[in-house]
Amino acid sequence: xxxxxxxxxxxxxxxxxxxxxxxxxxxxxxxxxxxxxxxxxxxxxxxxxxxxxxxxxxxxxxxxxxxxxxxxxxxxxxxxxxxxxxxxxxxxxxxxxxxxxxxxxxxxxxxxxxxxxxxxxxxxxxxxxxxxxxxxxxxxxxxxxxxxxxxxxxxxxxxxxxxxxxxxxxxxxxxxxxxxxxxxxxxxxxxxxxxxxxxxxxxxxxxxxxxxxxxxxxxxxxxxxxxxxxxxxxxxxxxxxxxxxxxxxxxxxxxxxxxxxxxxxxxxxxxxxxxxxxxxxxxxxxxxxxxxxxxxxxxxxxxxxxxxxxxxxxxxxxxxxxxxxxxxxxxxxxxxxxxxxxxxxxxxxxxxxxxxxxxxxxxxxxxxxxxxxxxxxxxxxxxxxxxxxxxxxxxxxxxxxxxxxxxxxxxxxxxxxxxxxxxxxxxxxxxxxxxxxxxxxxxxxxxxxxxxxxxxxxxxxxxxxxxxxxxxxxxxxxxxxxxxxxxxxxxxxxxxxxxxxxxxxxxxxxxxxxxxxxxxxxxxxxxxxxxxxxxxxxxxxxxxxxxxxxxxxxxxxxxxxxxxxxxxxxxxxxxxxxxxxxxxxxxxxxxxxxxxxxxxxxxxxxxxxxxxxxxxxxx
Amino acid sequence: xxxxxxxxxxxxxxxxxxxxxxxxxxxxxxxxxxxxxxxxxxxxxxxxxxxxxxxxxxxxxxxxxxxxxxxxxxxxxxxxxxxxxxxxxxxxxxxxxxxxxxxxxxxxxxxxxxxxxxxxxxxxxxxxxxxxxxxxxxxxxxxxxxxxxxxxxxxxxxxxxxxxxxxxxxxxxxxxxxxxxxxxxxxxxxxxxxxxxxxxxxxxxxxxxxxxxxxxxxxxxxxxxxxxxxxxxxxxxxxxxxxxxxxxxxxxxxxxxxxxxxxxxxxxxxxxxxxxxxxxxxxxxxxxxxxxxxxxxxxxxxxxxxxxxxxxxxxxxxxxxxxxxxxxxxxxxxxxxxxxxxxxxxxxxxxxxxxxxxxxxxxxxxxxxxxxxxxxxxxx
Lengths: 619, 380
Fold this sequence. Notes:
The complex is a heterodimer of chains A (619) and B (380).
Chain A lengths: L41 E3 L9 H5 L5 E5 L12 E6 L8 H5 L5 E4 L13 E3 L10 E3 L13 E3 L3 E3 L20 H4 L12 H8 L7 H5 L6 H9 L3 H11 L3 H7 L3 H5 L11 H11 L2 H8 L10 E5 L3 H12 L3 E5 L8 H4 L8 H13 L3 E3 L10 H7 L2 E4 L3 E4 L12 E3 H10 L9 E4 L3 H18 L4 E4 L11 H9 L2 E4 L2 E9 L2 E14 L5 E14 L2 E4 L3 E3 L6 H6 L2 E2 L2 E2 L12 E3 L2 H4 L3 H22 L1
Parallel strand pairs in A: 6-7, 9-10, 9-12, 10-11, 12-25, 14-21, 15-16, 15-21, 16-17
Antiparallel strand pairs in A: 1-4, 2-3, 3-5, 4-8, 13-22, 18-19, 19-20, 23-24
Chain B lengths: L17 E6 L11 E7 L2 E8 L7 H5 L8 H4 L8 H15 L5 H29 L3 H22 L8 E2 L2 E2 L7 H24 L2 H7 L7 H7 L3 H5 L7 H4 L20 H25 L20 E9 L2 E9 L5 E7 L2 H13 L7 H7 L4 H5 L1
Antiparallel strand pairs in B: 1-2, 2-3, 4-5, 6-7, 7-8
């Protein structure tokens, strides 16, 4: 303590330090090791960097610029851009590390940079040893004298991203789902949907990097509508939907959400629930307000008419955008109600009919005529359409079930999933087996299995369904949540089993013999399954449903016209705007892209542009 | 208001014997980019005018153009020697405006970090003060012992000077493995060294003779000038935000506020010396009582973080006194207005000019440092 002693000799006590080892003493020279969380020069692992640019957005000094890399390919979920750091601006605060959704960015323990030219302070972040112009070197070859941004010590990350301390919210607002016990006895919609508060909270997670927009086939303005939802302006969100997609209530439920797969937050956590947010905003604007929200119809009206074959997503989307552009579209639909596979293929518990009707009614209200129960090729021919209209858009989709063609599939109790699903929608009496085997591992297989489970519950009060598919569970084409929910509803899933034959005894199905499927695709990635015939398993059943995929039915195209159409493999060849080699004939939807709702909508949009251009050129 | 007069003050304005001297910003006796324009007559200062502005970077204005999270790496730069209280202030202000909860563990970690910052700031001051009085040894020791604390900071958050560690919602990372041992080593080392500091410096007759009775002011004068912290406590006032309006975990810790009575340069130095020992004790207690749990409560997405409209003034006790921040939110993602009350401002501008009047030229540097002036706090 302070006593203020009088002697001026007291300080000489410090002489004892002459004989103590000083703590700054380092000889021979050794570099002081930097701490584990040192915030030095940046490191970016290119293999996990998504190019989202959040680091550039958060940088308080604008030190980071996203630079396009010509040698990199832009794929969904990964832009061909890399952050470039200007070390003349960087303050090494590490906010870029804390906002990085995939955690690819970190700060190294390196802090020495020696270079003759000042431009070297503007640097790409070094990557792995393979990456070419920048290289990490092992400790033995590293020296301070050579230290530069392109000459960095390997395995030397300091300040790294930690999920618990990241500025990114990795956890989704949980979506309420009807419990399996309750939902399997009815066809009521199982997803409860977000409340306003939940939706805004979920929307607030979005970082607006736009990776999702690049991945969306329809290229929807996802960041914009999520921002609108976050701001509480659901009407603005709906306006954004209708710029590219006239079926938001439908897409908000059953879209294959490529956007969520691309979401950067999904790299380490749960992606933003983009689909549920769309559903929320679409539902929040009632049908009677849609017109008011979206404003008046077309600015001009053209007298030219377009015939659209098929009232599925592609046909509806095309008709809507033609109507918005002022053209008169007429849809010819074979089934009694419009919607196509969305109505007759997707079960009601996933897509309730009122949501479907809301979107379709709005499309009809902008001046699209939908003629149901009019099958082209039967009630009206394609030639008649050609004569009566200025252009024709074919969007008839994939609606014929494919068969495995194994022994026994010609039996009466072997059904096609797509036919059964249509019958359920139409309210027809359908056969319900006591023990059912579904062949297939896609979403349609899950749809039919879960629909049959509901019918079994009604009739027998118990579920006995087995799904067997060629693919092993990790590569099953059905979405993960469909598989999980099917399991919860009591459906057994036997992955990696191929059908061998259906055993029939005294006129009735006894069951399905299967063999082990060892691989589905060959080395070129083509479908070419191989089996281990020793590993056999028998599934007892009195009903077998095939759900291995659908095919188009183009028998309505007259032979003479068919010969004039150029093909690409089995598909009709179309231009980027979906015009076929016969100028008045446009083709889109599943016929071109294969089964996917959002691709179909995107096709419809593009085809509408193409048709409008074609008609304009014609006049 | 005639506040401070020196015994030997002579008002000889306009005399031909007067000379104008620039003490800083380029001067070995000046810490930081700060200047004093002195009018001297012989060895006596006739008039002194503080000359700030060399370090003005417009932080308060810059903060209006940055989002709430982007401001966080900026605020620590308001005081180079003692950055953590600024981070704490900003975090507290935002937490109050946005209604954020801070986990209990974060409160304790913040307390530890703030006291570490106080110790490093005091040691840095000791280096400057010792040097200006001609005591080289104490300066070197202080800087050497400060290194151990800087190592702790480096381990904690990867930065030795600008820690960017305390942020809204808690702290940026939990304590790393082995941190407590490292910090205890630094504390033990400083505690072992303090008696030697006393032998060499604080109990040294030369130090006492050099500082006693120099630049003295009373408690009332200090209060009227807005002085706080060690400057005020050296006049016998036991005023400390940590006790008066406890924040972080200070309410749960047991500590005394050291005071001295005379209000002169000597008293101010001794208060700082006593505070170092007190800080060691506070850190030890906090380390012992620290609860488990998370050290940060996630804040909203920084790109979509709107803070509800409102205004707040928060204050804490930094190494130099009451440090305050006034923050206004208009409901957008950026502060509408930020104002920082640095404790060095009244010391360096108001009090210093008066204390220097009539002082000996050789005392100018040490009077300035006895007030523990930090130039960046003046300019902001």
